[in-house]
User: What shape does this take?
Amino acid sequence: MSDNEYRVAVVGATGAVGEQMIKYLEQRNFPVKELRPLASKRSTGKTVMFQGREVKVQETTPDAFEGIDIALFSAGGSVSKAIAKEAVARGALVIDNSNAFRMDPEVPLVVPEVNPEAIAQNKGIIANPNCSTIQMVVALKPLYDQFGIERIIVSTYQAVSGAGMNASKELDAQTQAFISGDQVPTQILPVGSLDNHYQLAFNVIPQVDVGQENGFTLEEMKMVRETKKIFNDDQIGVTATCVRVPVQRGHSESVYVELKQDYQLEEVKDLLAKQPGVIVQDDIEQQIYPMPLETADRPEVFIGRIRRDLTHDRGLNLWVVSDNLLKGAATNAIQIAEAYIASKR
Amino acid sequence: MSDNEYRVAVVGATGAVGEQMIKYLEQRNFPVKELRPLASKRSTGKTVMFQGREVKVQETTPDAFEGIDIALFSAGGSVSKAIAKEAVARGALVIDNSNAFRMDPEVPLVVPEVNPEAIAQNKGIIANPNCSTIQMVVALKPLYDQFGIERIIVSTYQAVSGAGMNASKELDAQTQAFISGDQVPTQILPVGSLDNHYQLAFNVIPQVDVGQENGFTLEEMKMVRETKKIFNDDQIGVTATCVRVPVQRGHSESVYVELKQDYQLEEVKDLLAKQPGVIVQDDIEQQIYPMPLETADRPEVFIGRIRRDLTHDRGLNLWVVSDNLLKGAATNAIQIAEAYIASKR
Assistant: This one.
């Protein structure tokens, strides 16, 4: 990476997040010398549009990373585990959107607004946190700095696109079939790899990712562990209930946070409004609050319903919404790349 | 009410809850001598089916309550305020499903599984609690008795039928229009009487009922105040975030409860499983948990995702689902009537 333009590979280029990564690289005017879209063998031959040109999708093989400076991975944990280190061995910086390396002590887990300093510790791989974690820690960062955080209790309202493009299509197909009175297809949701599949259309499913022995789901435990790692603070208490709702794009979160110090509500609102990457939409009497339909396709984290908790003096309630494919995935990954480049200058 | 059969009026007989009340009176074999369906002038001339016969809907006037023993009101707060006392004056027991009298110190607020003893204090009116409150207190009752409750933090996932039949129809129309690429109708949701209306299809709206000066919505404050009144305990802390989701029937709730004493998880599960009116569906590894689509049209409260909180020793997380039109409204009202009758024998 000696000059100011970069050869960028996107692994999982035809997936829900990969698509957004390519779109976002273009929108942000990321200094791309060459875009190399990679995917499974099945997708080779397809093309993606980038800067007005069609670019052919290639198969994700070790050699496909020859000459690559930055490899953005978003093809699931098993692909990342199998091949990310091959990319690193060929000189690429890997920014990985899967769960493969997030809790690896050798791998920094980065949200640029929260812990950009962790980027410097990378040994070739930087992990992008889980979508539901990213938007929450962006919202909580200024409160953490100002007051300290004792604990967090979060309930999520997660969009189906977090489960991938086929899950998105299944919600559409379910909705159409349900309205028409046809047999509702249930082959993917809530978790493709598990045995039982349920209708999400006109329903909510209190399961995101696989269940664990402790009664929580993997998604819930990601929020717990990743939040501690990103804030570099094992003392933060986090408990989560993760729920899939029939929304295509945009995760919403009902967040209860117990601060370490007393606070004034106006100070909290000011801090949130000043936080880079955050937009406050908060006036219930005027019916102003964020909703996933309005925040889709926007890169910021939106916060509303900011109010003093009724059960604890240092408790605070927030409603946090963000596009899970953008700040929750593609945007954050590319912001990591930008912060990395800036740190090398 | 001298014999064992009763003349029953249903006010709001053509509404979402009124319809369920009539259906449920029939299903439960409630001892109905005469069913008198009442509604606004606009609905007179319509008929409802009861025990295989068509019964004409009459206008809700004071004189319509002549001879009535039990009047089930579910036509909104303004109708209840205007006319419930006329029914009482004519000798009827009023069971009111609106918000009109719930916090009136003269009016008991009753969930038969929780505080049946309050029925005896009535002076002609018994209030049925808000749908989101009912299912939560049924779930928490055995825990309250066994351990005491310090505080509750609840986030809801509420079905559109809670906003009435026209709101239900609007969600269907929105969904159909959105899928077809047509203009999405937004005239009712989230709150018909307010200025701003939003799409709920493929969205979530963090507003149920009108906003208040303290930043909470009326729905949220109902959960706070009613829970304290039903448990007859002003010391219980309650904070709520109430959210409308694109579901037709069945409210879901992510409930964090902080008990007053240490607990064993198995004991909690046993207590919940033994509680009348509760069905436990709890095994995340087997993908067993309640969902609104599966619990619609069933009168019980369903509980799953039962797990020890990760941030507090006495904290517990529950996922509580129930049909908002049944246990959340019609079923509870008729159970109050049954308990009242039993208490008079």
